[in-house]
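FW: tagging you since you asked about this chain on Friday. Here's the raw sequence from the shared folder, copied in full. Didn't touch anything.
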Amino acid sequence: MGYLKTQYAVSVNPKFHNYGSNGGYEAFDTIHENVRRSVSGDGEITGADGVATISGGWNNGNSTKYTSDGSTVQVTTSTNLLFIRHTGFLRNTNTKCDSIDLLQIKIDTSSSPCTGSDFILCELGPGEAMVFPRPGSSWGLIFSSSRADIDVEMLEIGT
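HL: got it, structure written out here
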């Protein structure tokens, strides 16, 4: 049979934008002086032999979109990697989102040890994505947005 090997990589370029000077020099971007380099990391997760669980509505290279209407996605201790992407489009349309249409990824406090209102882990703009390797919990995530419902692409890889 076989097993599932999942590779992932993250790269961050901390840039500083210099506006330029009329008659002096053009505007330009440069790596931030204190960091002085790109920072990155990668990894590979090997699943159990004979098990290759993929969820998130994937079939033949296409995904069924989730939405930012408060939908809850359950994560389990068997989840090896969770990939979430803001598609850049409003729910069930071909209408592009505005840059202020942010996807909020929240912890569902009803199924986690967190208390109080939903905790926002991050906000993604159109086209942005986030990877959670080995979340190692059984909490749920909530997809929401402050303006309009957004199509969300999600891939959950488990053992």
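FW: The mean pLDDT is 86.
HL: agreed, and DSSP finds no helices and 15 strands in the chain.
FW: great, closing this out.
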